[in-house]
From TrEMBL:
One Gene Ontology molecular-function label: lyase activity
Lyase is among the record's keywords: yes
Keywords, comma-separated and alphabetical: Lyase, Pyruvate
Stored SUPFAM superfamilies: Phosphoenolpyruvate/pyruvate domain (SSF51621)
Designated name of the protein: Isocitrate lyase/phosphoenolpyruvate mutase family protein
Taxonomic lineage: Bacteria, Pseudomonadati, Bacteroidota, Chitinophagia, Chitinophagales
InterPro entries membership: ICL/PEPM (IPR039556), Pyrv/PenolPyrv_kinase-like_dom (IPR015813), Pyrv_kinase-like_dom_sf (IPR040442)
Keyword Ribonucleoprotein listed: no
Amino acid sequence: MSNTKPDQTQKADQFRALHHSDKLLLLPNVWDHVSTKLITKLNFPAIGTASIATAISNGYPDGEHIPFPRLLEVVRNITAAADYLPVTVDIERGFSGSINKLEENIAALIETGIVGINIEDSNVNHHDLLHIKKQCEKIATIRKVADDLGVRLFINARTDVYFNPDIKNPVEEVLIRAEAYADAGADCIYPILVKTYEEVEEIAEKSPLPINVLLIEPIRDLQRLQAAGVARVSLGPLLFSLALTKIRDSAAALKQHKTEDLFDGELLSYASLHDLL
């Protein structure tokens, strides 16, 4: 029996459809209430989280060091602030050492109102890939839990193939994993850190799943990514890094008594700041 809210089901269907559209899905990644409210005012169709941003903004290093109950609290705040927007969450490796714990965690995450997750297929240092069979078991578990709860959770299967320099043909390995993950119930393949348009195009052409890429400098041309067949572009921690860089640089300028740049551009007004509540 489903215990999900009707609007969660609708958001899940909406989010899934965004990956099968002629329009490239641009997914900004947020980390708290305020960043979420800012994005909702810019009319993006959906939002996601980045694990490093949610962890560091709460005082923890990346790599599942943030306690899972704290992560749930952060996600609840984000889904509440997102209002009408679908939210997908980076859950790293699932915060679990067993299938039973993974089941519990996925159920708890769905209860927060999310409609999508990223699940990665490597160990904590991202170098050693999990055996395909083991990762497929995790994906199938996530799919079953979501189906039992009555929500079509969008499973974005992140593969860390490009972290491993020992893999001689990364495109081939990505495609092997995409095929297996699709059979297990995944909805999208995410070869994070793929760096060339040619590789992106080959994966998009041959993968049974839509492809998600991380926006990094070598493949930053959105028109080329769309032409290559990409369905979704994630920003990862980019907005978080940009925000902190701006704070650092502004404070450093102030320390040198340089204030002219502090008032460049249109600052958020007092009223606009309160609109973020």
